[in-house]
Specification:
Elements lengths: L30 H10 L2 H5 L18 H19 L3 H10 L8 H11 L8 H12 L13 H7 L5 H6 L5 H4 L6 H25 L4 H4 L3 H13 L5 H31 L4 H6 L8 H19 L2 H23 L6 H9 L1 H10 L3 H12 L5
Helix pairs in contact: 1-4, 3-4, 3-10, 3-13, 4-7, 4-10, 5-16, 7-10, 10-13, 10-15, 12-13, 16-18, 16-19, 17-18
Bound molecules: magnesium ion (MG).
Amino acid sequence: MDGPGLAPYAARPELSRGRRYSEPDAPGRSAFQRDRDRVVHSSAFRRLEYKTQVFVNHEGDLFRTRLTHSLEVAQIGRAIARQLAVNEDLVEAIALAHDLGHTPFGHAGQDALHECMKEHGGFEHNLQSLRVVDELEERYGGFNGLNLAFETREGILKHCSLENARKLGEVGERFLHRRQPSLEAQIANLADEIAYNNHDIDDGLRSGLLQLAQLEDVPLFAHHAREVREQFPEIGERRMVNETVRRMINALIVDLATETARRIEAAHPASIDDVRQAGPLVAFSADVRKEADALKSFLLNNLYRHYRVMRMTKKARRVVSELFRAFHDEPRLLPLDHQARAAEDKARAIADYVAGMTDRYAMKEHQRLFAISDG
Ligand code: MG
């Protein structure tokens, strides 16, 4: 929603700080709607379909991928934005772009690539998402990247070291001055957390890595599950899980919107710049924050560190580091356009190439380079 229905502290496309390369306005679409469209048409966005969230893509058709995760983040983010009368289009653009920089194999891939890049400025998926939209997409005759509006780029860059912030110009400044981004960016960030906490429970149970009985110790899940069982005593397990997760998502959205509205009223921001100067305004209530943290640490200990996930993680790290090392030792193994980039900055060009791979492309490329029997 743009225009008169927006709260005064919402991001307004007509007051945007603009794009890096100036472009005429598009008839019928605001700057942020246009950014969302640019993200959806990017090749990095299409590749999210074949990138791991927690489960490697080929493990099953029903698990979340980075693409379905990003769609869930956008949907949750828009629901929150609508309740707070801030800019839904901007939240959507940020949410759809937030994971564009993810390596294959999720966090395992990112950790391995960071290790490989230690001597060359490191690798961080969040910074890479910005790099994808600023530099790596090749869709315009006149410039690299998607030339997104400042507010979208500000939202994509969730965190950043001070060293990197200094190199990023305008979009890095808030890290140096310890300021907040727009409400829309803060919403996209917490919508991400709501999405993964809930869908990882669902995927964890579906995969058999988590058992329902374990979740009885997680207050946020347990109390909704109890209510569902009371209301539907005959309910089957699969449907019970779905109904419980659905209620959890709703409860988190309602709590976040309520607590945020309370904070907005107390801080009384009159503009997006007041929002940037204030403390974090988008937040859960203290009780729900505690419950959400308990759920997070449950997932860390029981799902992300499950031995079967760890085995996958171990292999993923190996694939990513061996690919990086092979290309670094011999850049002529790179496809030609990446060789051209490597001539300017070898390590970064290789990191860009490896980070852009889907899970299955990385495995195929690894086979092509290391399997004796496969040409
Ligand atoms: Mg995410």
